[in-house]
Design brief:
Blueprint lengths: L1 H21 L8 H23 L4 H17 L17
Helix pairs in contact: 1-2, 1-3, 2-3
């Protein structure tokens, strides 16, 4: 079980690292927060899936941990800033 948790954490870190490299810096918070979120999300997703499905389905557990990490990392993405402001609506 310890090796599985380490594998889940490594996968989560790699997903978070890819997110920090692919998205502009102004769209994500600090890199340490992104990396920690990716690792923790992947470990939690993998261990919950392991509890539900069993330990004999490692590839499915790994795929679910990648999905959970990606979903939770997507919650950290900020919307792009617009350079112009629209005028307030008057009724």
């Amino acid at each position: 079980m310890m090796w599985e948790a380490l594998a889940f954490a490594a996968v989560g870190l790699s997903v978070a690292y890819a997110a920090t490299r692919l998205l502009p810096r102004r769209r994500l918070p600090a890199a340490t927060l992104v990396l920690a979120t990716g690792a923790v999300a992947a470990v939690l997703g993998g261990l919950i899936t392991r509890t539900v499905l069993g330990s004999d389905r490692f590839l499915i557990n790994l795929a679910v941990s990648v999905g959970v990490a990606a979903v939770l990392l997507s919650l950290l993405v900020r919307p792009p800033r617009s350079t112009h402001r629209s005028s307030p609506r008057t009724a």
